[in-house]
Design brief:
By secondary structure, this protein is an alpha/beta fold. The chain is 49% helix and 11% strand. Helix 1 crosses helix 6. The longest helix has 36 residues. This is YdcF family protein.
């Protein structure tokens, strides 16, 4: 009887594929690191930019509010928007943000109320409380702006949120610049800043890949 057949010798193409596999994996890792590192650098870089050229509107991105009282994060944004308004950067402030389940106030309404209490006339305020996330809010702001002939905006948020905010604003047709607040819990310590840079890096990459909501709540700051 014939003996067992010898094991087939791997073909040249199979040997080359095995040899190239580690290089492909290494190349993919390098590309991923460059993507993440480059995005993180841009998040950090734009977070340091403060643009105060005259625009049609100051847009304050919402944050947590408690029965109409802005959280420390939100209050820091509103205070910065007030300073821009007083410096004549824009003739109006647009507050944005909806309400969580059970809330009596929306973020936009809480922001408007705080600004009125701090001296901004009601006719200079426009609350836009539509949208369940940042992108949805920008869509609502863009619709309001188009109705009124407003095009340019300076966005007020936390430093590390600036790049993602401006990207979304550009995507809905707004001519956006950024002027982030430099006060509040988000910028108090280097550890907190690093945490937010990492979070915003992931959120921005996710947004670019899916074009979907990339808001992640942080119950630690509000």
């Amino acid at each position: 009887m014939p003996g067992p057949r010898p094991a087939p010798t791997p073909s040249g193409s199979a040997i080359k594929a095995v040899a190239w596999a580690p290089r492909i994996v290494l190349g993919a890792l390098v590309v991923a690191l460059l993507l993440v590192g480059g995005t993180a650098f841009r998040v950090w870089q734009l977070g340091r930019v403060d643009e105060r050229e005259p625009v049609d509107m100051i847009v304050v991105l919402g944050a947590a509010q408690y029965d109409g009282e802005p959280s420390p994060v939100f209050r820091a944004r509103l205070q910065h928007a007030l300073e821009l308004y007083e410096q004549g950067v824009a003739p109006r402030i647009v507050t944005v943000g909806g309400a969580a389940a059970g809330d009596a106030f929306t973020e936009a309404q809480a922001g408007e109320q705080w600004l009125v209490e701090n001296g901004v006339p009601g006719q200079a305020l426009m609350p836009v409380d539509e949208g369940s996330d940042t992108y949805g809010s920008f869509e609502a702001v863009a619709a309001v702006a188009e109705e009124r002939g407003w095009r340019s905006a300076v966005l007020v948020s936390d430093p590390w949120h600036s790049l993602r905010s401006r990207t979304m604003a550009d995507d809905v047709g707004l001519e956006a610049t950024t002027s982030p607040t430099k006060r509040g819990p988000v910028v108090q310590t280097r550890e907190t800043q690093l945490r937010y840079i990492v979070r915003e890096t992931g959120a921005l990459i996710y947004y670019h890949l899916t074009h979907g909501s990339s808001d992640f709540s942080d119950p630690g700051l509000g």
